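Internal tracking record. Fields below are filled automatically when a chain is submitted to the structure queue. Please do not edit lines marked as system-generated. If the sequence contains nonstandard residues, flag them in the REMARKS field before resubmitting.
Queue: standard
Priority: normal
Entity type: single polypeptide chain
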Amino acid sequence: MPYGAMSTVLVPHRRAGAGHLSLADLREDSFALAGDGPLQQLAQRALLACDRAGFVPTVRAHADNLPGLLSYVASGLCVTLAPEHTAALSFPGVRFLPLTDEVPELTTTIAAPHRPHADPAVRSLPALAGASLAG
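SYSTEM-GENERATED OUTPUT FOLLOWS
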């Protein structure tokens, strides 16, 4: 399922007052990216987007979850890219700004084994996850 993306910028950041950003505006900033855990595709997407914008980001930090990424941003250490739905989080010191760049889409795939007598909660998980990702 495709995700949109936004740039997250620390409120005192030089570009925080803008209504939107181009990734090229962030080429001099350090980035926090997702690590090799469950958000690895988010990091791949960010690297691909930066490459399309003509630069390789300086990666200053890695985190295994979105709150971790946003903590680095709130500390003033760096900026990050996050899915659009992350903007619904209230995170002090962080401002979410939409990107003007076309951000590459990645697909999330959920694979689950079929068990004829699986617990109903387990059987409903793929549908719930799909509905959640669809927005």
